[in-house]
Amino acid sequence: MTVLNFEDLSPVQKSVEVEIPADLLSREANKVTSEFGRQAKVPGFRPGKVPASVVRTRFAKEIQEEVVQRVLGQSFRDVVRDKGLEPVGEPQLEHLDPFIDGAPMKFKAKFEVKPQIELGEYRGLEIDEPKIEVLENDVESMIERLRDQASSYRIESERGLDEGDFAVIEIASSGEDIEPKTDQGHFKMGEETPLPELHDALRGKKAGDTASFDKAYGEDANQEAWRGKTVHHDVTLKEIRVQEKPDVDAAFANSVGGWESVEQMRSTIEADIRRHREAEALRFKRNQLGEKLVSAHPFDVPEALVEEELGKSLNNYARYLASQGVDLQNVEMDWRKIGEEFRPEAVKRVKRGLILEAIARKENITVSDVEVDAEIRRAAREQDREFADVKHHLKHDGGYEALRASMAQDRALEVVLKEARTR
Q1: What average pLDDT does range 35-47 have in this prediction?
Q2: What is the SS3 assignment for 422?
Q3: Three-point CA angle 246, 250, 253, nearest 5°
Q4: Which of 174, 179, 217, 210 is nearest to 195 (CA)?
Q5: What does the alpha-carbon distance between residue 136 and residue 420 come to, in Å, rounded to a whole number?
Q6: CATH superfamily to which 303-422 belongs
């Protein structure tokens, strides 16, 4: 193999032109022909006894394709190894000579590589230390949420609708050039709703009473058919429900959390809130360090890595929308526009990962197979899946080494965090 030309198109994009000698092609062709011969089924010949000349004639195209694929792949790997480069994505073939038996073959390819990062100072970075405190109001708010969840509801039929009551309604909507529709639902008096007019219309009404009002909608209305139009709403108060919260006593503490006393409930809730805020503070500090590392290390990033990261972001967003009940098959989504909005953050994440990878190398941080397997076991337990099944899939699709790299980056960030100065 001879490298005819090598170009640095940019710090992350290269071009190479290679000539593969005829004898290398010939040796590989003989090897592939032999492999085809062992598996070929040709009428008139026993399996594995087909003459090489017959195999070459009958499977000429397939043999040539296999030979070219193998020698191109190996030649490309040899080039990047000799140059000390780490390619990313697939190389883009720009030229390939036709396969001619007994003749050398030239090819030209463009490819992307991981950038060579000149590490700046990453120890002693200054970051803000979030203040962590848990107030009595925080604990009370959580207890109120637990009371809400444990509440019972009784039907009120003697008096009218008042603040704090839940109104069960049926609402008919109509208007010019608007298809009439009837919906059912409920809302809590005094809390924000998409139709604040409901509160004034139904306040003091009893179950069975009706009310009407008109509403002029702007161009931002949720209902597309109502945008820029005035809609008439007829509302029927079907039912009034009054929330009855349990008292805060030992029985309540035991029923919602298995606690033995109110004091134990309060102390446990306080500790949980504190742990949550400590985790949030840690994420905040790690994000600060990530931003500082990125801003202190300007460099080009391979588009292949950005596209890969962008794909992950869009997949996560799609899963989130699906979890919120969005029918992705029937809703119009401008994924190109969404991708452009996500791109800047994707570039940042790629840069941060590459910087932390460089720090991990400098700090001699390694992650063993045992440690990777332990992380896979933890994830498998959380997902209620078999460890062997998860590991097999990760090994198959390259996720195993990606997980190892991610763990090494996390440890590099811990080194940076440990050495950071807080203010």
Answers
A1: 79
A2: strand
A3: 65
A4: 217
A5: 32
A6: Trigger factor, C-terminal domain (1.10.3120.10)
CA–CA distance from 327 to each of 311, 321, 324, 336 (Å)? 20, 8, 9, 18
Residue 110 pLDDT = 95
d(CA 347, CA 119): 18
**10/18 Cα distance (integer angstroms):** 19
The answer to whether 244 and 191 are in contact (CB under 8 A) is: no
Give tens-digit pLDDT for 212-232: 999 999 988 888 889 999 999
Query: In which residue are the tokens 């030229």 written?
Result: 95
* Residues linked to residue 8 through DSSP beta bridges, in sequence order: 14
Give the pTM.
0.77
Length of the chain: 423
* Tens-place pLDDT, residues 232-276: 999 999 999 999 999 999 999 999 999 999 999 999 999 999 999
Residue 181 · residue 223 · CB < 8 Å:
no
Superfamily of the domain at 2-113: Trigger factor ribosome-binding domain (3.30.70.1050)
CB atoms within 10 A of CB 309: 20
Residue with structure tokens 């190892």? 404
Nearest to 123 by CA among 354, 410, 407, 415: 415
Q: What is the pLDDT of residue 421?
A: 93
CB 203 within 8 A of CB 189: yes
Region 115-126 average pLDDT: 93
